[in-house]
Amino acid sequence: MMKKFLLIVCGSFVGTTIALMVFLLTSIVFSIAMMSMSSMGKSSTSVQKNSILYLDLSGEITEREGGGEMSMLDMMQGSTTSSTGLNTLLSAINKAKTDKKIEGIYIKCEGSSAAPATRFELRKALKDFKKSGKWIYAYGNEGIDQGDYYLASVADSIFINPVGAVDVHGMASAIPYFKKVLDKVGVEMQVIRVGTFKSAVEPYMLEDISEANRLQTEHYLGSIWHNMRDSMAADRKIDIAKFDQMTDSMLVTMEPDSLVKNKIIDGVCYPNEMEARLKALTKLDKDDDLRFVNPADYATDIEEAASGDHIAVLYAEGEIVQTAEGGPMSSSGIVGEDMVEQIKKLQDDDKVKGLVLRVNSPGGSAFASEQIWKALEDFKATGKPFAVSMSDYAASGGYYISSGAQRVFAEPTTITGSIGIFGMIPCYEELAENKVGIHMAVVKTNENSDFGIMTKRMTPSQQNAMQQMINRGYDLFTKRCAQGRHVTQDSIKQIAEGRVWDGMTALKIGLVDELGDLQAAINWVSQKAGMKKDVKTQNYPALSTDWRAMLNQMMASQYELKLQGEMGMLYQWHKELQKIGRRDHILCLMPQTELY
Fold first, then answer.
1. Phi and psi of 236, rounded to 5°?
2. Helix/strand/coil (H, E, C) string of 498-552?
3. Which of 34, 125, 281, 434 has the most CB atoms lying inside 10 A of its own CB?
4. From the candidates 95, 124, 134, 198, which is the catalytic residue?
5. For residue 554, is it left (φ>0), alpha (ψ between -120 and 50) or beta?
6. pLDDT at residue 477 is higher than 50
């Protein structure tokens, strides 16, 4: 018995020691890699003559480049595709425009992931690049999907593999409805809302889309698609009616020869033949290697700290929550208390002469949205100019925090509005009592002492009280929007009701001031701040360089990747159902929609 005990103790000791050694070794390697990449990031990439800026459209295009640390995470996780920041791509394209060593841009279409507004900004930068007289070529090996084709259509020439295809099919929205599965497991969602179009609660109370939601979705989808379709048809010199006809007839099934004949592409070739074309364009011998320049290596200064006076660009990306779940190392999205603290620091920093809030958010916590709005009002009170630049989404709570800006910029394909509020409290009474067999006995001192116990349905009086609270929240939301837009509250309510709008329509109805990108917002703020020459910007919040946080993130990512691989298409639904009990009960959140 003693021998067995000693073996167990020794085994445990050895196991613990090995685990500690592995952790320490990983930490040391990680730290060395971080220091190495930090020093590398400060040096500029050497570009040879006859080089090509290489845009690899194979991963996710995010708002902001994560820097070397994220590349390290991708590498340690064995990821074959990594995300690229829109700011990195835009900076590289703009820099290459005047770089005499860069001959042109090569777009490799591999199925990138990005929302329409992100692609719109990138496409606009590519069109501006062409004004320099330099060329752009695009190639799809297995084929080119619609998102990548929207970008590739700017190119002077588009090529695909002889057995490749081009998939342009229009846009669709897919919204998962969870009521049936919730009924099966015995969970009832108690919903209180304001706004006919406030459809974020629909998946939990209906089995199919409402007519109001269908109407608003058809409107903004149609507007976004017409903008994309018109741009692609114009740059390919194809009549819009003919482009529509090809789109409706399943363009993906068209033979490559027909694609060339109908001007969808310019030719077909294998990868090695495409390389030969690029070598000819850059005047290289057939035995020479192509001189590709990676945007992440080329645009090395986008996250460097600005010295002296500057414009602050504050990124607000993701769902809005008040506090980080599981502590700061596991936080994601817009954490209200952190955002408020960051705004206060910018307000007190004499070197910050103005602020651009870059919003890419579907909303979230109503409480956190109000706190961020107040912090931004305090910033404005200093006299420093403040503008908002809307990205893919600035809806519901995302619009709440944008509404007080002195100037609001959006892209035509931005999704915004959704001015509405709702409460959603799950009730697990059926699950506990009849599915699992757990009875909750409640003893209370007052009439509503049991309010908030999730195994008890709300009483009519409690529902009425909640409705009054939601009504007050909606009134406050519309009041904030009216103050910020300098219009009456009644006029805001006419376009509110939770309705989602595209950027083009939002301009017409007064929700935004101007169609323009992040740089347009920076230019406006710098002009208002009296900064006319050598305007410097600095991105906030600072990117994390804490290796412990990154190690924690890597471990969490590994778990999520494993889960995603096992669950496939069910993964996103699983994540959405997970949020039910974690979110605030009162929300300014747009409906969950996946665009195709």
1. -95, 0
2. CCEEEHHHHHHCCCCCEECCHHHHHHHHHHHCCCCCCCCEEEECCCCCCHHHHHH
3. 125
4. 198
5. alpha
6. yes
Domains for the chain: give ranges and CATH numbers.
51-169+250-298 (3.90.226.10), 310-595 (3.90.226.10)
Based on the residue annotation, tell me whether 97 is a catalytic residue of this protein: no
Rounded-to-integer distance, Cα 372 and Cα 320, Å = 10
List pLDDT tens digits, range 382-409: 999 999 999 999 999 999 999 999 999 9
Would the CA dihedral through 116, 122, 128, 129 be positive or negative?
negative
The dihedral sign for the CA sequence 257, 258, 260, 261: positive
The secondary structure element, H or E, covering residue 143 is strand 143-144
Residue of 396, 402, 418, 526 with catalytic role = 396
> What's the pTM?
0.84
Q: How far, in whole angstroms, is CA 182 from its chain's centroid? A: 28
Collapsing DSSP to helix, strand or coil, 393 comes out as: strand
- What is the DSSP-derived secondary structure letter of residue 581? T
- List the structure tokens of 329: 């190392």
Q: State the helix-helix crossing angle for 336-348 and 366-381, rounded to 10 degrees.
A: 0
Q: How far apart are CA 113 and CA 595, in angstroms?
A: 11
Query: Quick one: pLDDT at residue 23?
Result: 45
Known catalytic residue: 198?
yes
> Phi and psi (nearest 5°) for 144?
-130, 120
* Cβ(417)–Cβ(501) below 8 Å: yes
pLDDT digits (tens, 9 = 90+) for 345-360: 999 999 999 999 999 9
DSSP label at 432? Answer: I
